[in-house]
Design goal:
411 residues; mainly beta; Tachylectin-2, Chain A; five-stranded antiparallel sheet; four-stranded antiparallel sheet; 4 helices; 38% strand
Length: 411
Amino acid sequence: MPDDMARVRRRTGTGIGLALALVLGAVLVGGLPEDDDRRRDAGGCAPRTVASWAADDTLTGEFARYGDDAGRSDDWTGGDGTHSVRLPDGRLLWLFSDTYLGRVHRPPNPVGEAYAWRDTTAPLVRNSAVLMRDGRLEGTLPAPLFPDPAPNQWRWPVAARVEPRSPGSAEQVVRVLLWVRTAGQAPWVYGVPTATEVATLSLPDLRVESIVKVLGQEQVTDLSRRVLFGTTLVEEDGWTYVFGGDDGRPAARPASHAYVARVPEGGLADPAAWEYWNGSAWQTRARPRPVLGDGRRTGVGSAFSVARQDGTYVLFTMAAGAKGLTTVASYWACSPTGPWHGPTTEFTPALPQGGTAAYNPQTHPELSDDGRLVLSYDVNWLESAGAAVMLSRNVSLYRPRFVTIRLGPGR
């Protein structure tokens, strides 16, 4: 975790409420190939980059409408770690990490700098799930959806998919990847990476049936080399490719690394079905090897998103350096294992005024059509003075924003 994002956690003063910002806000950088390596890989895919982008005010506004609804007292009013999955009945399940619940108060005559606000004593939970139907948010499931596994530990939901209960089964369930973190001391103020788990939710009632550990990291003594999977996943040819990252410390390795595993369809909840890329082949029970990042000037944080379009994999992440607080970059590859090329075109989405930052760019393929991609990014407050108060005084500072992207030929 870069030093500047570690300061985010110290500045917020909100305890667990913004811890995920440290993980998702880490600076991400792709491998930088030579010019003659940026053309077309042997796999036959074409380079892709961001050709255009635009704010999606409809989606952003829907989360503002729902979060500001003063008629509810136990629902989502703000959160980060934004992921989504389409359910078989057409509903969209949105998954969040640290989440504010409670009631939002709206100023009677909003003028000037008057914002909707919440009480500083509003409930704060480690995860939540919100349902959407036909573009309208309908309600929040009882939160937290995933209970803490042990004292001083918590679960953050990341990527999810609907798949057969077991390979070949006609019954479908929802599988949700979970990150387990354990409370730690500086520099691990955002929690120590502990394990990757998979939760199984029944359909259509979304009851948590089971949670299994697929990759424990407790035996990895170097905390910066612990790998958590599930920041994003891509389905292709009967496989689910699950991407992950470590939390490399700036003092030892300025950039973290990206990793990839694969699981046959229906096998996400079976630890024995997971295969990890070891640098040259897929193996079970293997120590995964990085597919992106050299540990010095290039690499990734533990959160990013990958989409596949016309045979090309495209990775979205925050840009390198100081731009990593405001700017999204992209990279491309012909295979989940790389080689990854980039960064390509960057863009800077809108942010609220003041000391705010963007992080955790996530694609939402279930909302994407006609060649466009829908991408969300989370927002957080950075300034040190009164940060906890600011997030309550202006509830819009801790909610996802959305953009639509069109990809074009890269180089």
